[in-house]
Each structure stands twice: as C-alpha cells, then as structure tokens.
C-alpha cells in the first residue's frame, strides 16, 4: 500500500510503499481513501508544532473522505480517526459520517475543517446569542473566513461584517450578498480604529487574524454596556503574530468577553456531536476556486510552496 509520512518534523511527507493494512477489526470498516486536505492543522502537525504530533514517522493528516467499496457509501472520516495520507484506512465505525449522495468528496474534504472552525466557535465557545445577532469576521476572505459566513447565517446571524486586507475581495463579498458590510484591515491603525468604532456594538467577533489588527479592533470597538456583551473568539493567527497589546482600559470599559476555539477549549466528545451537522453543511457548499487537488504521490513537491500556503491543497491517494 502507498502512503505518505513525515520522517522528520519540518520536512514534507515522503510518498512510499509499505505493507498492506491488517484486516479491519469488528468495530472498523476498510475505506478506500478518496481525499485528504492539507489544512493549517496538518501543516502544523508536519512541522511538529501541534500537541497531537509527538513523534515521527508521522502521517500528519487530520481528516478526510473515503468510500466503502463493499457498499459504495462515501464517508467523512473524523479528526484523528485514522491516517488518511494513504490508499486505504481502517476506521472505527463510530468515527464515520455518511456524506449525502452527489456531494463532491474533494469539496467535503477541503471544507469540513474550515466549516468546523466557526461552527464550533458558535456552538461551544459563545453563549446566549440574541436573535438576528451581528457578527464581525476578521479574515473573511480566507477559506475558513468565507465558510464562517454561511455558518453564521445558519445559526441566525442577521448582520455579517467582513474584515480583511483586500478591499476588492471584500467588495465582491458585499456585491454577491455574502456579507452586509466591511472594514479594511490595512493602512494606518487610526483609520482602522475609526472604521471599527463606526460599526457600533457587535454581538460576536470570529477572529482568524490576531496580531496588531485584532488589538486595534478590540481597543476601538464600541460595546453595549447595558445589553448583550460582545463575545470575541480567536480561531486562528493568519497574521502569524501570537500576541496582542490590549489596553487594560479596554477590559474595564467595555462589555467584552474573550475566548479561543480549538481542541482544549472544548472536549473532543462535545465537538464530535457537532460533526454530522458540519459535514451536512460542507456538502452543500460549492468548491472554492482556491481548492487545488493533487495526487498523493506529489505531496513532497507541493508541500512547501506558495500555493500550499495561500490555497487549500487536497491530496488524492488514487490520483485524479
């Protein structure tokens, strides 16, 4: 069986051939792997920068899509249920979620993880949202940020404000009705602060950016001291800055709660209950233009490239 593994942290997975899998246990099913996406989590595991990556050799995959050749049913394979950078996987039946007929396996593999990021933030890390709540998505033009829009709509968002550096991309999201308005996360901090203050209170902030822009937004944000708090949730660090400078005055003068969303801030058991809904939504979304499939045999070549960093690569064990 062919598979790909990281032999040393910081290196790309190497495609190789090894022994076939043992027969699946009674509680398992053998799947032919169709697709596994290279999410930020997968890249972090390959680099040895995630708590789940403790030793090598390692299959750094997190999830994927496979088919039971005996029945023809296609399944989403939940996070860390099995190594998915391989031609086959033996998977615990309890960790499988059937994918609706007609759904594209590549799209489901690419988007389930991004959809889960905002879905779990809204279900596990915020509380008591008002009807028609407002949400500000920092980093809305990235894959995860874009999927946060339909997720927020599903959970009842009435107003969605997008924030990113690329104003043309933001204007396009307003034009197609995805978001209602936007602010630009570039230029002078004072300009961003004024734009944030002009928004008025918002109910939720989903942050994929962090860093200086986030600090500026939080320090300038207007909150409703007599009403519902603004619930801020950090999900990612696109800005590659793990720290922010938050004025103490901000915490004392605003009705603001701060949280993060990732395994550790919620239990895997709790998150697991949300997976069927997450997969069902991901299966309805169109494949974004920045989702790029490659054969698993090309993993080492495409791993450390601008395309891998800026787009969503999906690896296909059986090629295209």
Automatic annotation (TrEMBL):
Q: SUPFAM superfamilies, per this entry?
A: GroES-like (SSF50129), NAD(P)-binding Rossmann-fold domains (SSF51735)
Question: Which InterPro entries is this protein grouped with?
Answer: GroES-like_sf, NAD(P)-bd_dom_sf, Zn-ADH-like_protein
List membrane-spanning regions: none
Highest taxon listed in the record's lineage: Eukaryota
Protein name, please? Quinone oxidoreductase
Species of origin:
Sporothrix curviconia
């Amino acid at each position: 069986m062919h598979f790909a593994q990281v032999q040393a942290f910081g290196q790309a997975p190497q495609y190789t051939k090894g022994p076939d899998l043992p027969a699946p246990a009674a509680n398992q099913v053998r799947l032919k792997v169709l697709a596994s996406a290279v999410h930020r989590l997968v890249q972090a595991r390959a680099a040895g920068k995630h708590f789940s990556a403790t030793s090598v050799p390692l299959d750094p995959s997190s999830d994927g899509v496979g088919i039971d050749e005996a029945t023809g049913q296609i399944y989403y394979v939940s996070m860390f249920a099995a190594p998915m950078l391989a031609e086959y996987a033996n998977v615990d039946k309890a960790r499988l979620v059937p994918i609706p007929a007609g759904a594209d396996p590549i799209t489901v593999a690419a988007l389930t993880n991004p959809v889960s990021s905002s879905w779990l933030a809204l279900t596990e890390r915020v509380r008591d949202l008002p009807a028609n709540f407002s949400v500000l998505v920092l980093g809305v033009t990235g894959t995860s940020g874009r999927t946060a829009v339909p997720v927020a709509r599903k959970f009842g968002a009435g107003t969605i404000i997008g924030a990113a550096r690329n104003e043309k991309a933001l204007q396009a999201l307003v034009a197609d009705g995805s978001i209602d308005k936007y602010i630009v996360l570039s230029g002078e901090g004072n300009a961003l602060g004024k734009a944030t203050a002009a928004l008025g209170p918002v109910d939720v902030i989903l942050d994929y950016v962090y860093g200086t822009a986030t600090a500026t937004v939080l320090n300038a944000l207007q909150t409703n001291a007599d009403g519902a708090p603004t619930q801020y949730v950090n999900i990612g660090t696109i800005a590659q800055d793990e720290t922010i400078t938050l004025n103490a005055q901000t915490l004392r003068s605003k009705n603001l709660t701060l949280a993060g969303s990732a395994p550790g801030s919620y239990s895997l058991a709790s998150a697991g209950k949300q997976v069927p809904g997450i997969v069902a939504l991901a299966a309805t979304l169109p494949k974004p233009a920045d989702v790029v499939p490659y054969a698993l045999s090309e993993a080492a070549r495409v791993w450390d490239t601008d395309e891998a960093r800026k787009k969503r690569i999906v690896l296909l064990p059986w090629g295209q």
